[in-house]
């Protein structure tokens, strides 16, 4: 049952690189800062961590200069000379991590319990509620919440659902006793990033300072964090639907070599970087810019220079290489013509990934 004593902990979470101590390789992981350690998960939706780095007696090094071609790296050294390296997506994110990790270490030294400060009050949930398990059940194709195409304010929202759909499902599945309890659980799912707001009404509700941030309304739209959601809007000039991902201003354009995902061969593609929303589209350079061959959603992604590509022969491509890893852990390898051009692309993509939605 719901009580006033059980609380859900508020942690600092993000996707970042974590360097392995055995294979000396970098992996994208979902990281959680707890009160006594840093837990890391293979995916955001995993219910149990792959490992934990204890913070008691740990030493933090920032900035870390051990990797000349990797930016925004910090190092956490623990007992027995074990070093763990992390790479954030941008400077502000790294500094936020450093600030909270230092506070956590200081609390442990003083025998206190670390609790990250939050602008929102803690959401009170029973210990029996497992938000990760609920998320998986919600996404079940047969018994879960149905994703739909919804229209509002001359926009089409694809792969989403309404706030009252969420509460209806929680009540009908016996996960909560009533709609009030359903709002509390839904707020937890929203605050933990499992659900995302779509549209002005739900986004305004998510920014509310109160506990209940999910709106139990038929015109408040939401979507699953790892769904195929995208928004389309009717053009003001005509009735042609323009995909939301093409609405952003062009930030940079040029040709790069791109490695294919299946055959691993390299081809020249014309790339267009757009901001707000943050997308990198690529085209056949012999054709126009009407139909892209593909797109890379950059929000929350990590981009960095690399010395080589794991699946390519060393003599195939050399120099001016960089890698993009998206928030859903898809790797893209690209090569610029010169070192200067490579650096310009990396900086431009990092800026867009940080600021664009």
As laid out across the biggest beta sheet, the strand order is 4-3-2-1-7-6-5
Rg estimate, integer Å: 22 Å
Low-confidence stretches: 1-15, 117-122, 235-242
Largest sheet: 7 strands, antiparallel
Mean pLDDT across residues: 78
Number of strands: 20
Proportion in β-strands: 25-35%
Q: How would you describe the overall organization of this protein?
A:
By secondary structure, this protein is an alpha+beta fold. The protein is built from six helices and 20 strands. It has helices at 91-109, 131-138, 163-172, 179-191, 200-206, 339-355; strands at residues 12-19, 26-33, 37-41, 51-54, 59-61, 73-78, 82-87, 148-152, 155-162, 195-198, 221-224, 230-234, 241-243, 249-259, 266-275, 279-283, 294-297, 302-306, 321-325, 331-335. A seven-stranded antiparallel β-sheet has the order 4-3-2-1-7-6-5, with helices on one face. Strands 17-16-15-14-20-19-18 form a seven-stranded antiparallel β-sheet, covered by helices on one side. Strands 8, 9, 10, 11, 12 and 13 form a six-stranded antiparallel β-sheet that branches. Strand 2 and strand 3 (37-41) form a beta hairpin. The radius of gyration is 22 Å and the shape is flat. Residues 141-226 form the DEP domain. Residues 9-106, 249-354 form the PH domain. Keywords: Acetylation, Phosphoprotein, Repeat. This is Pleckstrin.
Secondary-structure blueprint:
Elements: E1 12-19, E2 26-33, E3 37-41, E4 51-54, E5 59-61, E6 73-78, E7 82-87, H1 91-109, H2 131-138, E8 148-152, E9 155-162, H3 163-172, H4 179-191, E10 195-198, H5 200-206, E11 221-224, E12 230-234, E13 241-243, E14 249-259, E15 266-275, E16 279-283, E17 294-297, E18 302-306, E19 321-325, E20 331-335, H6 339-355
Antiparallel strand pairs: 1-2, 1-7, 2-3, 3-4, 5-6, 6-7, 8-9, 9-11, 9-12, 10-11, 12-13, 14-15, 14-20, 15-16, 16-17, 18-19, 19-20
Helix pairs in contact: 3-4
GO cellular component, one term: plasma membrane
Pfam families: DEP, PH
Domain PH: 9-106, 249-354
């Amino acid at each position: 049952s719901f009580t006033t004593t059980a609380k859900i902990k508020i942690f600092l979470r993000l996707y970042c690189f974590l360097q392995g101590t055995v294979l000396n390789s970098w992996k994208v992981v979902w990281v959680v800062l707890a009160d006594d350690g840093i837990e890391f998960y293979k995916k955001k939706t995993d219910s149990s961590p792959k490992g934990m780095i204890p913070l008691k007696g740990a030493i933090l090094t920032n900035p870390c200069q051990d990797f000349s071609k990797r930016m925004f790296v910090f190092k956490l050294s623990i007992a027995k000379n074990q070093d763990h390296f992390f790479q954030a997506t941008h400077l502000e994110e790294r500094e936020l991590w450093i600030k909270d990790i230092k506070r956590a270490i200081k609390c442990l030294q003083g025998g206190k319990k670390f609790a990250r400060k939050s602008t929102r009050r803690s959401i009170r949930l029973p210990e029996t509620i497992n938000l990760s398990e609920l998320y998986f059940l919600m996404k079940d194709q047969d018994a879960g919440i149905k994703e739909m195409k919804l229209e509002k304010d001359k926009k089409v929202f694809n792969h989403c659902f309404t706030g009252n759909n969420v509460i209806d499902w929680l009540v009908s599945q016996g996960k909560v006793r009533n709609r009030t309890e359903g709002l509390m659980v839904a707020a937890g799912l929203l605050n933990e990033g499992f659900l995302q707001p779509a549209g002005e009404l739900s986004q305004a509700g998510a920014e509310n300072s109160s506990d209940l941030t999910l709106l139990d309304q038929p015109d408040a739209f939401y979507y699953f964090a790892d769904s195929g959601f995208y928004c389309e809007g009717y053009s003001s000039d005509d009735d042609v639907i323009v995909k939301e991902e093409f609405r952003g201003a062009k930030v940079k354009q040029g040709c790069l070599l791109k490695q294919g995902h299946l055959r691993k061969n390299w081809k020249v593609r014309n790339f267009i970087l757009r901001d707000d929303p943050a997308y990198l589209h690529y085209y056949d350079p012999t054709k126009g810019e009407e139909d892209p061959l593909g797109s890379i959603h950059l929000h929350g992604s990590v981009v960095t220079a690399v010395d080589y590509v794991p699946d390519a022969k060393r003599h195939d491509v050399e120099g001016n290489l960089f890698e993009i890893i998206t928030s859903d852990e898809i790797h893209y390898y690209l090569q610029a013509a010169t070192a200067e051009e490579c650096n310009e692309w990396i900086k431009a993509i990092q800026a867009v990934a940080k600021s664009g939605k």
